[in-house]
């Protein structure tokens, strides 16, 4: 019995990290929808893309961590990772993404000040 449970904590932690990454992916798609002021069709496309990327990420993590064997503790690890993201890291991620967006805007404003850019994009 002990032999079959030796590496379960590694799988659990790997899937928890994958769950956190799925949460970050959700935050990125949420930010993208807000920036683009997405309508219903673009929101549908973003949701479908998120689902595809999340499934690929979780399947890849499961394959790397547990040779593709789906076990309850692996799914619980992914769920716990996503829960941790949504309970605490989601706010931190929004703050960091907000700073990144502000930095990108400032960069484009800085580029827009150049005369050559003003001539090209009249």
What does this structure look like?
The protein is mainly α. The chain has five helices and no strands. The chain has helices at 2-5, 8-36, 40-66, 72-112, 115-120. Helix 2 packs antiparallel against helix 3 and helix 2 packs parallel to helix 4. The longest helix is centred in the C-terminal third of the chain and has 41 residues, at 72-112. The chain is elongated.
Record keyword descriptors for this entry.
5 helices; elongated; 122 residues; single chain
The portion of residues assigned to helices is over 70%
Biggest sheet character: none
Unreliable stretches (pLDDT < 50, length at least 5) are: none
Q: Approximately what portion of the residues adopt beta-strand conformation?
A: under 5%
Q: Give me the secondary-structure category.
A: mainly alpha
Mean pLDDT: 83
What would you call the shape?
A: elongated
| Gyration radius over CA | 20 Å
In total, the number of strands is 0
Task: Give the termini separation.
Answer: 73 Å
Number of helices: 5
What is the string of SSEs from the N terminus onward?
HHHHH
Task: Offer a concise description of the structure.
The chain has 122 residues and is mostly helical.
Show the helix and strand layout.
Blueprint: H1 2-5, H2 8-36, H3 40-66, H4 72-112, H5 115-120
Helix pairs in contact: 2-3, 2-4
């Amino acid at each position: 019995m002990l032999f079959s449970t030796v590496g379960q904590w590694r799988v659990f932690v790997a899937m928890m990290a994958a769950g956190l990454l799925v949460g970050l992916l959700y935050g990125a798609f949420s930010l993208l929808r807000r920036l683009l002021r997405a309508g219903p069709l673009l929101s549908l496309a973003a949701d479908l893309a998120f689902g595809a990327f999340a499934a690929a990420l979780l399947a890849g993590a499961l394959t790397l961590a547990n040779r593709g064997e789906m076990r309850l503790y692996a799914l619980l690890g992914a769920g716990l990772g996503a829960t941790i993201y949504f309970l605490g890291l989601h706010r931190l991620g929004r703050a960091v993404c907000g700073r990144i967006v502000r930095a990108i805007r400032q960069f484009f404003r800085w580029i827009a000040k150049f005369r050559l850019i003003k001539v090209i994009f009249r």
